[in-house]
Amino acid sequence: MSAHTKLNEITQRIIERSKPTREAYLERIANAASKGPVRAHLSCGGQAHAYAAMGQDKAALAEGRAPNLGIVTAYNDMLSAHKPYERFPDLIREMVREQGATVQVAGGVPAMCDGVTQGEPGMELSLFSRDTIALSAAIGLSHNCFDSALYLGVCDKIVPGLIMAAGSFGHIPSIFVPAGPMPTGITNDEKAEVRNRFAIGEASRQELMETEMKAYHGQGTCTFYGTANTNQMLMEIMGLHLPGASFVNPETELRDALTKEAAKRATEITGLGNDFRPVGHILSEKTFVNGLVGLMATGGSTNLVLHLPAMARSAGIILDLQDFSDLSEITPLMAKVYPNGLADVNHFHAAGGLGYMIRQLLSEGLLHEDVETVAGESLAFYTKEPKLKQGEVVFEDGTSESLNEKIIRPISNPFQKTGGLKELKGNLGRGVMKVSAVKPEYHVVEAKARIFTDQHDVKKAFQNGEFTEDTVVVVRFQGPQANGMPELHSLTPTLSVLQGRGLKVALVTDGRMSGASGKVPACIHVCPEAKSGGPLAKLKDGDLVRLDATLGTLEVLEEGFEARQPVTHDLTANKVGIGRELFETFRKSAGQASDGACSLF
Questions:
Q1: pLDDT tens digits, 84-104
Q2: Which domains are delineated in the chain?
Q3: 333: which DSSP letter?
Q4: Taking the model in full, what pTM does it have?
Q5: d(CA 442, CA 208)
């Protein structure tokens, strides 16, 4: 099926916009690749340092004729999603030796959990942990000893940071290796119900804790469709995972076999063989467009609207919010996974998952099939699913029908005709709203504004009974330059309760919401941010504000608004404590949210 006309138009627009930076990038990685296997250029002393601890692999490394793979790992056991990676280096080493190659752990990168830091000072380090991860991975790879790389990471900022590093080392073939979601626990509705009751004082902290422990109960990613699982979808639809690898549970035979298969494939795509696949070529304009389509078709995390522009810039590609909005207009919403529905990612995977969705999107020309992938095939290969037969991974045709249309539907009968995200713009700036989980009757909210500069003050106002009418809650000075752009997900239960009482409420902020943002309309990532004098800094309590997700507008309906002077806010308290003083350089150099809020490009 040839690509959809509008898909081609948007892709061509990105190609033209990115031409100078993309051409310079491709020339740079071609020059790096032309120098051949890198460790041969190290001095004997340098090589001896690099191989000293490698035991039985030292001779093969010194000879330099076989591929040497580098592992960049986000392993820690603070994050359930990254605990499985503890075993992966040994699994990879076992397979690589069978191929006559070698592997070394090039370096570790930090990995923090927004679920743990939600509403806490540490959340103000979260966004810039992405840039720190990119820098940390670059340090590991800077030893220049590797013919290909395996990236072990899953969660919110980890995958975007690793992609930024992979893009920077674009001459090195790279495969991303997932760890999979934890098995299903209690239903997401049960969890949300107890959270909402706790917010209004009807559930005890003990009851809340017991519920949360039943939801988050083992190794693997959280099972809702938040940022972590959106990352995994992206890596698969962008051809950086092996087909069907994203949502196989940890500690299963198939998961281990797929990890070994990724290691085997990494030995096959180096410059020493006949199938050289530098990751900078895989990270093409068409590949990123495929990622954006996947984001829309699944109703994925709003955090990726922030991360994808930064990821693309690492490969010389420039994305704009308009690209997201235009692709959303032609991409049907095919999946309903919590917070957009009742199912979790395990149910989604069982119902046909990504393989089925890719098959359907390709059938209507809504994905570019002619892209490079780590599997060595076009994107059509990603309609297959992995099976374990006699200890070997084989890829067989996946289902051509949805196995549960309450979770994933055919493209001819989607949940809605357009995707899950909408750009909103007007005299309050530009922002984005996740509409896939918001009921149509809440797509337009016009109400008086209530202005806050701290999410905790919103909760205090709620507890004091101050919200008695339709309200647009504005939380400003939450952008990357102000305080690192923390997620404001802890506001979700509060605003949900107000909505449940029959009020029309909405959130407008230059900060972020969680990838699990749900049923309350929220225009987020508004830029220019208040710290840089953006329009949000001119708002006053009582101003009439209108969010319209149907027209894509974000406006204050007050005469003379443009002539007002923006207010300032004392951010001293956000600059110290829990490591925040170390990140002042990141805050000062961060770009606007629409460009990825990145401090590196």
A1: 999 999 999 999 999 999 999
A2: 5-183+218-397 (no CATH), 189-215 (no CATH), 421-595 (3.50.30.80)
A3: B
A4: 0.94
A5: 28
